[in-house]
Each structure stands twice: as structure tokens, then as C-alpha cells.
Design a protein that fits this description.
A hairpin with a 2-residue loop joins strand 9 (135-142) and strand 10 (145-152). The protein starts with a helix and ends in a 19-residue tail after the last strand. 39% of the residues are buried. Helices cover 7% and strands 46% of the residues. It is globular and about 45 Å long. Strands 1, 4, 5, 7, 12, 13, 14 and 16 form an 8-stranded antiparallel beta sheet that branches. Strands 2-3-6-15-8-9-10-11 form an 8-stranded antiparallel beta sheet, with no helix packed on it. The chain has a single domain, classed as Jelly Rolls (Sandwich). It is mainly beta. The longest helix has 20 residues, at 4-23.
């Protein structure tokens, strides 16, 4: 005969093991927009500024909703466009992971204007947008599609707070290609802050393939700034602009301090059987 108290003890122990695993997760903030708006909050994290972005049912990677970034078209080749979603993860972290799905519009075209043609891909900073330890990446025109490069404020150039950011190699030519239009692409980003004794790191993956690897290259340490990240945004200002209205869709966003938590799903309970 099975011992009921033994079975109960096994179940209780398993429950607390699972609960402990979930509680120790390093997820900062995640959202699939299934609330139908931008009201979701998690672990102190939230969306904190929304410019020309809405929640839509027109295109979703999973569930019913996704965030829609609307870039207004203009046939004037010097006209810019803007659509940006900002976030606050609620605390400073010197290592930051982010993963999301991005739908590339079927009419996507990265123009090559006579002036700047770079379009913001993401940004991260610690306390103030003008922090020199801000990092990010932008896309650049590449035959109607886009290459991608990491960007940061290089202290070797003597730049000061608010001095701007510069794109640095390596640069990938496969950020957005003809084969991506009309499809969902998964991007994963890793940033480690620089310190007084070591350079920081920026890595970007596209569909699980590493496409930007600036390991130990971010040398933007400032003694008067937090050497960590809390705020940021996805997409943003388009210096190239677009000929036509161009809409991207964002889904399944997860921000974490560990790569293993990017899935954002709690561990499954083990199947238990009493012997």
C-alpha cells in the first residue's frame, strides 16, 4: 500500500522547488501585448513613453495582439519619420538581455538620402538620455535594405556628456534583407556595461545567428555615471524616412539579466507518480 504521507511530502517538496525556481528568475520585464494596451507592469518595469505606436490585432506572432509602429511616408527624400517605444525596467543592471519578434513590412525600403540615412534600432542608458555610457544600434542603407552597426560614445574621441554616439564596426549587411520582408524576425541583444578596468560588450543575434559581435569594445566608461542600464527604446527616429507609410509589428518582448530567462516561461512542473 502506498504511503499517503510520503506522496504528500514529495508533492509539497516539488511545489516549493518549482516556486523557488520561478522566484529566482531574472526576468526584468516582458510583454506580449495581450492586455490590448501598454498598461502591463512587471517587477517594476513598464513601457514609459509611446510615440506613434499602438496595440493592434492586424498582425501578431502569437496571441491576438502586437505593438504596431507607424512610420508616416513622405516622397520628399529629405523627410524623416518617427515611431518609438520606450521602456523602464525598474532598476539598474550592468548586464542586459532583450529578445523580441519584429515583423518586417512587405513594402520595406531603406532609402539612401543625401544626408544621414541611419535609423534607430534600439538604445539603452542608465539614468539620463544624455549619459555618455548610453549604447545602442542603428540600421544603415544597404541596397534598399539594411545593414546594422552597434553605437556608443567612444571616450577616446574626447566626447563629453550629450556628445553624441558613433557607429563602430563590426557591421552586418544582413540586418534586414529581401528575404525578411513580410516575415517575423527574432532579434536578441546582449549589452554588458564598461567599467574602469574593462571594456563593455554588445552582441546582436538575428534568428539565433550572431550578426554583431562587439565583444570587449565599448570603452565609454565615465566615473560620474552609473555603469549599468535601466531605460531604453525599441526602433525610434528614422533619418532615412520612408516613401510610403511603413508599419512594423513587435511581439513577445522579454528583457532579463540572464540569457536563460529570455523565454519568459516558468519551468513546467514534473510529472509525479507515487510508487
Amino acid at each position: 500500500m502506498k504511503n499517503p504521507s510520503l506522496v504528500t511530502s514529495v508533492l509539497v517538496a516539488s511545489f516549493f522547488c518549482i516556486a523557488s525556481s520561478v522566484a529566482s528568475a531574472e526576468i526584468l520585464f516582458s510583454d506580449g501585448f495581450e492586455s490590448g494596451d501598454f498598461s502591463h507592469k512587471q517587477n517594476g518595469g513598464s513601457w514609459n513613453s509611446i510615440e506613434k505606436v499602438s496595440v493592434s490585432t492586424a498582425q501578431a506572432r502569437s496571441g491576438k495582439y502586437a505593438a504596431k509602429f507607424h512610420f508616416a511616408g513622405n516622397t520628399d527624400p529629405s523627410a524623416d519619420a518617427w515611431s518609438e517605444l520606450r521602456f523602464d525596467v525598474g532598476k539598474l543592471t550592468n548586464e542586459f538581455w532583450m529578445q523580441y519578434d519584429l515583423f518586417i513590412p512587405t513594402n520595406y525600403k531603406h532609402r539612401n538620402p543625401s544626408g544621414p540615412g541611419n535609423d534607430k534600432f534600439f538604445r539603452l542608458w542608465g539614468s539620463d538620455y544624455n549619459d555618455s555610457e548610453k549604447v545602442g544600434a542603428s540600421t544603415f542603407p544597404n541596397g534598399g535594405y539594411s545593414s546594422l552597426s552597434g553605437e556608443w560614445d567612444d571616450k577616446v574621441l574626447g566626447l563629453t556628456n550629450g556628445g553624441g554616439m558613433t557607429a563602430y564596426p563590426p557591421q552586418t549587411s544582413v540586418a534586414i534583407t529581401a528575404s525578411d520582408v513580410g516575415k517575423w524576425v527574432t532579434y536578441k541583444i546582449y549589452v554588458k556595461a564598461s567599467t574602469s578596468s574593462s571594456n563593455g560588450t554588445l552582441k546582436i543575434w538575428k534568428n539565433n545567428t550572431l550578426v554583431v559581435d562587439a565583444s570587449n569594445k565599448i570603452n565609454n566608461y565615465r566615473s560620474d555615471e552609473p555603469h549599468a542600464y535601466r531605460y531604453g527604446y525599441i526602433l525610434g527616429w528614422s533619418n532615412s524616412g520612408y516613401d510610403q507609410d511603413t508599419d512594423f509589428y513587435l511581439d513577445n518582448v522579454t528583457m532579463a539579466t540572464k540569457e536563460s530567462d529570455l523565454g519568459g516561461v516558468a519551468p513546467m512542473a514534473p510529472v509525479l507518480s507515487a510508487q
